[in-house]
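Service request form, structural biology core

Requester: graduate student, group of Dr. S.
Request type: structure prediction, single chain
Budget code: on file
Notes: please return the result as structure tokens.

Sequence provided:
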Amino acid sequence: MTTPRALPDPATEAGAGVISRLEHELIAWLTTVTPAGLPQSSAVWFLWAAGEILVYSRLGTPRTANIAASAHVSVHLNSDATGDDIVTFEAEARLDPDAPSAAANPAYLAKYRRLIVENGWTDEQFATDYPMAIRIRPTRLRLG
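Core staff response, request fulfilled:
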């Protein structure tokens, strides 16, 4: 089942702010649902591109198994220091084994270059460790 997309409106101040955060923030929280119906949240690196959130994951993780069983996820950006400026997406996720690797994604590499180097990876090592692309399609946007 595919539901309508919920994208931030760049013509509004709030929408432009959300897009800026999606383009520049380094960490988001991805919440998947286990087969038992329990939420599981993970901090992830992500790229906002073409109205979707792209995450690269290790193989065999609970998040990939959860997405394979249920496409329903949410993505949250961190709040400010006082708990304001909250951005939450309800979304549909899909595993994309045919996506280009992180090493072949110049925008992703540009965003995470510093962290890749600080963690001692080459681009190819990171792509080997995190080979599974997850594409997340927002269906509802909540601001608070």
